[in-house]
C-alpha cells in the first residue's frame, strides 16, 4: 500500500497530483490497483491538413465526403495546434490488474479508466492461457471506448471490441479474430466495421526462422456517408517470414506478403479503397531490432508496397520501445 501527494510548478501553472497504489500477492493470485488524480490547465486544440510533396504524406483528401483519409504515401500531413483558450482540468484515472497462475493455467485481467473534462477512456482486457510448451491455447477479450471533445470543431467517439483465439501445437500456430469497430464524428457514424478472420502458420525452422502463413478475413462495413451501401470486403493473405538473430540482443526479420481484396460491388467509394484497394497488393517489410537492455529496444523498419494500379511507395521508420 502506498500513498503519495505532491505538486509541480511549471512556469505560471501549478500542477497538483495524488497517487494511491495497492499490491496483494497470495498463492498464485496477484492484485494491483492504482488511483490517480491530478489538476492542470489545458488548451482547446484544432487540427489542419497541410499539402506536401506527393508520396511524402500519410493522408489523402476525399472530395465526396470532404474528409481526409489516413493512407501511407499520401500528399497531406496532419498538424494539431493549440488555441489561446485555457481551462482548469481535473483528471482521474483508475487501473486494476488481477492475475491467477497455477501450473499450466494463467488468467489475467486489466481494467483502466480515465475521466476528465472533454475526454474519457475506458479499456477492459481479459485473457486466459493454457499451455505446457508443446501446445498452447490463449483466449483474449478486449473492449476500448474513447470519447474526445477537446477539439474545437468536432468530437470523436470510438468503440473497439475484440475477441481472439490463438491455438498452437508444436510447429503449427493459428489465430481466429472477431472484431467490431465503430467511429463517430459528432453524431455521424464515420465507419462501422464487423470483421471475422483467421490465419494459420507453420514454423519450418527456428534458427533461422522460416514461417509461411495463409489467412482470410470477411468484413461488413457501413458509413453514414453512404447510407444505402452495405459493403462486404473479402481479403485473402499469404506471407513468408524470415528471421535470424544478430549477436546477442539483436534480430533481423524480413516479411513478404501478398494481400488480395475483393468487394461485393464494383462501385466502391474512394473513402474505403484509399486504405484498402481492391485487387492484389504486394508488401515487402524488413525490421532490424537491437536491445540495449531487457526494457529498451531500438528498431529500424523499411516497408515497400506495390498497391494495385498505383506506383510503389516506400517508408523508412525508426522506432524506440521503452518499458517503464
User: What is the total tally of β strands?
Assistant: 18
- Indicate the low-confidence ranges by residue numbers: none
In terms of DSSP E residues, the strand content is over 45%
Number of helices: 1
Largest sheet: 16 strands, antiparallel
User: Outline, from the CA principal axes?
Assistant: globular
Task: Tell me the distance between the termini.
Answer: 20 Å
Radius of gyration: 23 Å
Would you list the SSEs in sequence order as H and E? EEEEEEEEEEEEEEEHEEE
Strand adjacency order, main sheet = 1-2-3-6-7-8-9-10-11-12-13-14-15-16-17-18
Q: Structural class given helices, strands, pairing?
A: mainly beta
**Average of per-residue pLDDT values:** 88
* Helical content (DSSP H or I, runs of 4+): under 10%
Keywords:
mainly beta, 1% helix, 18 strands, 16-stranded antiparallel β-sheet
Please give a quick description of this structure.
The protein has 324 residues and is mostly beta strands.
Structure write-up:
The structure is a single chain. By secondary structure, the chain is mainly β. The protein has one helix and 18 strands. The chain has one helix spanning 270-273, and strands at 2-10, 13-26, 29-51, 57-62, 67-74, 76-102, 105-116, 119-131, 135-148, 156-169, 172-185, 188-202, 209-222, 231-246, 250-263, 279-291, 296-306, 313-322. A 16-stranded antiparallel beta sheet has the order 1-2-3-6-7-8-9-10-11-12-13-14-15-16-17-18, with no helix packed on it. A hairpin with a 4-residue loop joins strand 4 and strand 5 (67-74). The two termini are 20 Å apart. The relative contact order is 0.09. The mean pLDDT is 88.
Amino acid at each position: 500500500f502506498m500513498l503519495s501527494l505532491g505538486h509541480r510548478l511549471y512556469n505560471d501553472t501549478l500542477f497538483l497530483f495524488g497517487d494511491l497504489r495497492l499490491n496483494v500477492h497470495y498463492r498464485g493470485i496477484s492484485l494491483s490497483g492504482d488511483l490517480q488524480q491530478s489538476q492542470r490547465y489545458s488548451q482547446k486544440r484544432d487540427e489542419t491538413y497541410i499539402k506536401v510533396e506527393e508520396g511524402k504524406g500519410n493522408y489523402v483528401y476525399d472530395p465526396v465526403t470532404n474528409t481526409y483519409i489516413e493512407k501511407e504515401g499520401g500528399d497531406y500531413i496532419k498538424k494539431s495546434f493549440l488555441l489561446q483558450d485555457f481551462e482548469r482540468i481535473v483528471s482521474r484515472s483508475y487501473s486494476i490488474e488481477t492475475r491467477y497462475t497455477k501450473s499450466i493455467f494463467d488468467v489475467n485481467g486489466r481494467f483502466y479508466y480515465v475521466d476528465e473534462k472533454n475526454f474519457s477512456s475506458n479499456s477492459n482486457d481479459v485473457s486466459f492461457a493454457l499451455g505446457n510448451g508443446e501446445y498452447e491455447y490463449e483466449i483474449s477479450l478486449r473492449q476500448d471506448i474513447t470519447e474526445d471533445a477537446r477539439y474545437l470543431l468536432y468530437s470523436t467517439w470510438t468503440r473497439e471490441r475484440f475477441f481472439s483465439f490463438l491455438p498452437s501445437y508444436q510447429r503449427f500456430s493459428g489465430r481466429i479474430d472477431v472484431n467490431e469497430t465503430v467511429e463517430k464524428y459528432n453524431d455521424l457514424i464515420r465507419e462501422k466495421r464487423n470483421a471475422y478472420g483467421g490465419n494459420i502458420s507453420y514454423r519450418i525452422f527456428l534458427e533461422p526462422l522460416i514461417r509461411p502463413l495463409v489467412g482470410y478475413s470477411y468484413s461488413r462495413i457501413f458509413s453514414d456517408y453512404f447510407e444505402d451501401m452495405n459493403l462486404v470486403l473479402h481479403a485473402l493473405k499469404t506471407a513468408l517470414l524470415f528471421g535470424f538473430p544478430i549477436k546477442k540482443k539483436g534480430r533481423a526479420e524480413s516479411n513478404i506478403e501478398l494481400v488480395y481484396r475483393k468487394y461485393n460491388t464494383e462501385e466502391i467509394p474512394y473513402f474505403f479503397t484509399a486504405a484498402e484497394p481492391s485487387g492484389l497488393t504486394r508488401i515487402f517489410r524488413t525490421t532490424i531490432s537491437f536491445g540495449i537492455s531487457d526494457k529498451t529496444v531500438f528498431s529500424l523498419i523499411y516497408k515497400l508496397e506495390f498497391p494495385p494500379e498505383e506506383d510503389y511507395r516506400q517508408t523508412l521508420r525508426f522506432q524506440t520501445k521503452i518499458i517503464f
